[in-house]
Every structure is written in structure tokens, then in C-alpha cells.
Amino acid sequence: MTLKPHQRTIWNPWFLLLCSLFLCLLWYFLGLFSTDTIYPDSLSYAAAADGLWQHARGHDTRPIGMAFIHGIPFLWSNQLYANAWLINVLSWLVCQWFLFRLLRRRLSNQWAFWLTLGTNTLVGLISSMPHLLSELPFMALMMAAWDQFDLYDRKKDHRYLAVSLVLILFSMLVRPGMQFFGFLFLLCHLPVLWKSRSKRIFWPVYGVLLLIAGQFAGMKHQFGNARISYVDVITFYNYVGSKAVCLEKGQPYQQLHNPRADYFYTLTYTDRVVVAKADFYTQLKQHPQLLLEAFLLNIFENSTTGSIVVSDSALGKQHAWVHTLAQIQNVVFSVVGFFLALFIVIKELFHKPWNPAFWMALWVLYTLLSSGISSDQGDRMHLVCYLVIVVLVRLKNTLNQDFVAS
Fold it and tell me: Which of 220, 214, 134 is nearest to 171 (CA)?
């Protein structure tokens, strides 16, 4: 096999993956990975995987995309939690591979290598490897999608656009909160898709759209509402609505001791949608400022707290600095990511909209702001943006040069 020029040096992606594996192994021996804790979200992901693979049915909050990915170990084992390692490590290596590719197009191989390898110090991300969660598989999909969209922008080859569309649309079935961004991305590229609608390269896009339609139809058949998931109904009612009520009454908000949530879970799925919508419109009419305050407080909490997973690890219990490091990383990436993404979106909107920098920045803003519907999540809501923010830091310098040159 003939190596490409960038593969003939030590600064190549294969050596990068080996170094990443070594650093993950080092974190393992240091005790960063907690394997004796199973989180509530992990239980729901396991239930969704079991339902899809063993009983061919859906789940109320976890769409079929994540259920399929975490259910792959059913092909050889019934131990989903034990095999979460495999899914997450492979996902992380995919993230490393595509981050290196994105950076290598804008930096030297050496700089791209060290910057990518440096992301193995993001303890909030690395610590999630043994857990049956969605962060790393979702990140792998998004990093691959942005890499392909970047190639499409450079080469104008519709094959790359087709792959990026497939990955971004499929990510909606991994994290349902992506549905608004996913449909916006599809809508903006609909003219290209329509002009080339007969080309075979876009058939996988139609396949994913059929899969999404199947998710909506399956939810309607099984639970009563045509929607991608009920998770948004639950989180908005229990986290934003409940916190707004607590602010009105001057009471502290407690996620685990929430009478509204206890009542909410006694309702049928269709009634939950009705009650949640009615509650939202009532609060929006009576005290919209408290609803906004609750939403902003959630964003603030998710931007300034550390990693729950890191705190539960052996290393985190022995050394407080590990949790502090995760917290500092969350604050830095959240603050820098927000203002950097906002700057790029505004600048590119009037200069060269719809390019990779614009879309990546818009996705970062979307992810950070949409975390306001969820509370007490630590860094889980924002860490999926970390690697893209690394790319945006470099893109900002490139955009400045292009803007001055033009």
C-alpha cells in the first residue's frame, strides 16, 4: 500500500490513533473511568436498545438511532453495559480521525497532530467512555458530518454533501434535540437536493428521511403522538417549567424531589403533551420573565458546573483537582465557544453565509442555547461541542484573513 505524503511522517492519523489509545489506557490506570455507577440515562438507553433489538419496538424518549448503535453488542453478547466500552472507544477514535482531518487542511500536520492529541486531556469527555450514553457516538457522527461538508465546500462534489446530510439527519435519531437544526440544514440544501434528486448518491438521504418518518409513525402507533421523542416534553415541563414555578414561590428547585414531575409521570403519553403545552402557554402568559430566567439559569448551570461522571470516578474521589479541571474546561469551552460562534455566525451571515464555518458555529450556538431546557446535567450538554470549538478557533483566524483579503 502506497502511503500518501501526509502519512509518510510520524504526524499521521494512524500514529495519532495509537497515541490516543495509549492516553486512554493511561487514564484507565489512573482511575478516571468509573464502572460501578449506572446512570438513569444509561438505563433508558439500555431499555431502548433491548426494545429495538429484542422486541422490535420503540422507546418513549430514546429514538431508534441511539438504540441501534448501543444495541450492536447484541450480535455477540447480552452485556450492553460491558460492551459500551467498545462503542465509545471506537467513537472517540472516529472523533480524533476527523478532527485531525479538519485541522490538517488549515494547519501543518504537526500542529494538527498535537492539537488533536491534546483533546485527550478533556477529562469530561474521556471519562464517559465506560458508560452507556450518547455523547461520544453523537460526536463521532457530527465530526464526520462536518468533515464531509467541509470537503463539499472545497470540491463542490455532491457525494460529500450527501454523506453530510445523511449523518446530520441520522443524528436526529441519536439526539432528538437535533431535529430543528437537522431540518434547517436539510431545508437550506433542498435546492441542490431537488436539482440532483435523480442521482443515486442522494438515495441514502431519502433512506434516512424514510427512517425519520418511520420514527414518527412508530411513536404515533405505540404511544399516541407523531413525534420523534417525548424527551423535550418531559425536560421542558420538569426542568424549565418546574424551576419557573419554584422561582415564583421563592423555593429552591430540586430535580429529585419534584411534585410536578411525580404528577407528570402518572399521565398517559398523550396527556403529557397536552399538559406540558398548556403549562407552557399559561406560564408564558402569566410570568414570561420567570420562564426566561429558569431557561437562562439552566444554561448558566450547564456552563459552569463540572462533570458528574468525573466526580464519581476513583480518580475524582481521590483528587479534587480532576473535577476542578473538568469544570474549568467546561467554563472555558462554553464561554469561548458561545462568543466565538456568535462572532462567526454574524460575520459570515453578511460575508459568505452557509459555508462550513457558518454551519459549525450555528450548530455550536444551537447546542449551547438548547441546553437551557435541561437542568443539573454538569458538562454533558456542552462537551459534545468541544472538538468543533477547537476547529472554530482556527477557522476564525482563516476567516479574518479571507475577510481582509476580500
Answer: 134
User: Which pLDDT score is estimated for 1?
Assistant: 41
Confidence of residue 104 (pLDDT cuts 50, 70, 90): very high
CA distance 359 to 49: 31
User: From the CB of residue 334, how many other CB atoms can be counted at a distance below 10 Å?
Assistant: 25
Q: Which of 159, 9, 173, 17 is nearest to 95 (CA)?
A: 17
DSSP conformational letter for 4: P
Helix (H, G, I), strand (E, B) or coil at 164: helix
Residue 111 Cα to chain centre, angstroms:
26
Whether 332 shows a pLDDT value over 70: the answer reads: yes
Tens digit of each residue's pLDDT (9 = 90 or more) over 139-159: 999 999 999 999 999 999 999
How many Cβ atoms from other residues are within 10 Å of residue 63's Cβ?
28
53-61 long-range contacts (CB < 8 A, ≥24 apart) are 57/222, 58/215, 58/218, 58/219, 58/222, 58/223, 60/219, 60/223, 60/229, 60/230, 60/269, 61/176, 61/229, 61/230, 61/231, 61/234
- 31 Cβ contact partners less than 8 Å away, ≥ 6 residues apart: 313, 314, 315, 318
Q: How far apart are CA 332 and CA 242, in angstroms?
A: 29
**Rounded to whole angstroms, how far apart are CA atoms 108 and 111?**
5
pLDDT tens digits, residue range 217-248?
Answer: 999 999 999 999 999 999 999 999 999 999 99
As a whole number, mean pLDDT of residues 49-72 equals 96
